[in-house]
Design brief:
alpha/beta; Spore Coat Polysaccharide Biosynthesis Protein SpsA, Chain A; seven-stranded mixed beta sheet; two-stranded antiparallel ribbon; 8 helices; 9 strands; molybdenum cofactor biosynthesis; MobA-like_NTP_Trfase; metal-binding; cytoplasm; transferase
């Protein structure tokens, strides 16, 4: 099974004072570079989604040799990037991840690909019912038409798209914790304070 990965980097970072999340530096690497480094260990291709040509130009020096796609639909949130990435992916199964998750774990991503095989998706599920749709593997053939319909209906909610998948598998976070003991896979950056705290973490070390 050919594997693809899509990094969603088109967010505006409003809670980070309009800084580009993907280009924030932590331990001498941008978050984007770190994500690509980890994903290269478990997938056959990495795709990066950005919102417009200005952002595409800003990111180009960090993603050489990687597909860097602009959203066709503007102001549609992550779904716009997911649609372009799914359309461009060579693999039928695509790991989708937000660019602000600095502690991605190759073994967790590998598990999700294995869980998704033969199904519409593999999505981490917390005990309280919360899901992690932006750290999940999707069957692109099943997902593309659902996203297209949702965008045409002006419904930009990722979870509404996920709810329409007929055969999605939900992988318990308890199971993921056997691989990622501290569940650092799901740590993300939303504010400047988050970045300061994450910078101090010793677990950010992928070589």
């Amino acid at each position: 099974m050919q594997r693809s990965a899509l990094i969603l980097a088109g967010g505006k970072g409003t809670r980070l004072r309009e800084q580009e999340k993907a280009l924030l530096v932590c331990k001498d690497k941008t978050l984007l570079e770190n994500a690509i480094y980890v994903l290269d260990q478990v997938v056959d291709e990495v795709i990066v989604s950005v919102r417009d040509h200005k952002q595409q130009e800003a990111f180009s020096e960090f993603v050489q040799g990687i597909k860097l796609l602009c959203d066709q639909y503007q102001s549609k949130g992550p779904l716009a990037g997911m649609l372009e990435g799914m359309r461009a992916a060579a693999g039928n199964y695509v790991f989708v991840v937000a660019c602000d998750m600095p502690f991605l774990q190759p073994d967790v991503i590998d598990l999700l690909f294995k869980e998704a095989a033969g199904h519409d998706a593999a999505i981490p599920l917390w005990k309280d019912g919360r899901k992690e749709p932006l750290h999940a593997v999707y069957n692109r053939e099943q997902l593309i038409p659902i996203i297209e319909r949702s965008i045409l209906k002006d419904d930009h909610r990722v979870m509404n798209v996920v709810s329409q998948l007929y055969d999605a598998r939900f992988t318990s976070v308890d199971r993921i914790q056997l691989i990622d003991r501290e569940l650092v896979s799901f740590v993300n950056i939303n504010t400047p304070a988050d970045l300061v705290q994450i910078t101090k973490k010793g677990v950010y070390d992928h070589g």
